[in-house]
Amino acid sequence: MIEQPLADDGMSLVNHADLQQRIGTPVCLDESIQSLAHAEAAIRLKSCRVVNIKMARVGGLTESREIQARCAEHGIPCWVGGMLESAIGGAICAELATLPNFTYPADIFPSSYFYANDLGKPEVVLSGRGEVATSRVPGIAQEPDPDLLARWTAEHASFRDPSTGAAR
Fold first, then answer.
1. Spatial separation of the C-alpha atoms in residues 72 and 82, rounded to whole Å
2. What domains can be seen in the chain, in order of their start residue?
3. What's the chain's average pLDDT?
């Protein structure tokens, strides 16, 4: 595949569709896929044959899963891009990458590649085979280290519900 070969501008999906029709190599869209609506437009225009889903770019896990499902309906394989590089974000990306239709290796790195001391624990590591372990518990196993969180917190605010007095 060739990933996002053209600029992500107002004509990106149209220009990628023109290119995809002219070459045999699958075009993979990345920056052009910012939401489910963008993915649906790319599918209609036949702008690509692969999609890189970056959870931070598309608005979260729910939108990522909707894009993955829509691409699967149209036979367009996906893979997970990075952008959430802490252990917590990386673990969520690794779990996303286990869903059906994520057929290419994900763009997930060990936490130590980005952070000397990752706030999330345990850190994301690669096995000797270059694989990231997925969770053995519901959700993810990573959570913020309370001592690091306290040390690195610049400000703290708490809010109470005026009707109940409960913290929010």
1. 20
2. 2-108 (3.20.20.120)
3. 91
